[in-house]
């Protein structure tokens, strides 16, 4: 209810970006929704043909709400940053973290753990906010993302800054007095990326 009032667009933007990046129809793709909350991202992914959704979240209450949507095949409790994901390596075709990469939430140091559970050639979709109180975290996060790119752990597919991410909760947080804060969607593809098939 709170995010509806804030016109929170991250789940829609992230799902649309991921669906655009995917080379094949996603119905068979296995996807992990990290910090899944009540299932807002699952709803958007489901609308775009993703059917094999697994979720993890640190809150038992959020997981109950996510379970009630009927959109997830599997849900587990996990506090990312304090413990590893309860998942074998190279298990998922895609991993999303939408709305949890921010000050006081999932630390940027947890990003390699997301890569660990992604198949080679799989996609990772991450979002963060660009409002003033999150700029230090965003700079830290982008340094971590770029370091992994330099190490050829993944390739950047997209980094899209979006102006009207959600309504600002205070004038100080508002982007240039618009009443909104901005945010970013990042899509990366884990290396090695499979070669394009001939034909």
UniProtKB/TrEMBL annotation:
<feature type="domain" description="Methyltransferase type 11">
    <location>
        <begin position="32"/>
        <end position="125"/>
    </location>
</feature>
<dbReference type="InterPro" id="IPR013216">
    <property type="entry name" value="Methyltransf_11"/>
</dbReference>
<dbReference type="InterPro" id="IPR029063">
    <property type="entry name" value="SAM-dependent_MTases_sf"/>
</dbReference>
<dbReference type="GO" id="GO:0008757">
    <property type="term" value="F:S-adenosylmethionine-dependent methyltransferase activity"/>
</dbReference>
<protein>
    <submittedName>
        <fullName>MET27 protein</fullName>
    </submittedName>
</protein>
<dbReference type="Pfam" id="PF08241">
    <property type="entry name" value="Methyltransf_11"/>
</dbReference>
């Amino acid at each position: 209810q709170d995010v509806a009032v804030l016109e929170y667009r991250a789940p829609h933007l992230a799902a649309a970006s991921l669906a655009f990046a995917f080379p094949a129809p996603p119905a068979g793709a296995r996807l992990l929704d990290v910090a899944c909350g009540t299932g807002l991202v699952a709803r958007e992914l489901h609308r775009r043909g993703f059917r094999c959704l697994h979720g993890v979240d640190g809150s038992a209450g959020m997981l109950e709400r996510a379970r009630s949507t009927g959109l997830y095949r599997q849900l587990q409790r996990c506090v990312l940053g304090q413990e590893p994901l309860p998942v074998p390596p190279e298990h998922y075709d895609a991993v999303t973290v939408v709305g949890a990469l921010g000050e006081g939430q999932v630390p940027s140091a947890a990003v390699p753990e997301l890569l660990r559970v992604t198949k080679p050639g799989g996609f990772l979709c991450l979002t963060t906010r660009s409002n003033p109180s999150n700029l230090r975290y965003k700079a830290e996060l982008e340094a971590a993302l770029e370091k992994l790119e330099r190490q050829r752990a993944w390739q950047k597919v997209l980094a899209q800054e979006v102006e009207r991410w959600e309504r600002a909760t205070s004038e100080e947080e508002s982007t240039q007095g618009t009443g909104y804060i901005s945010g970013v969607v990042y899509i990366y593809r884990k290396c090695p990326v499979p070669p394009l098939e001939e034909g």
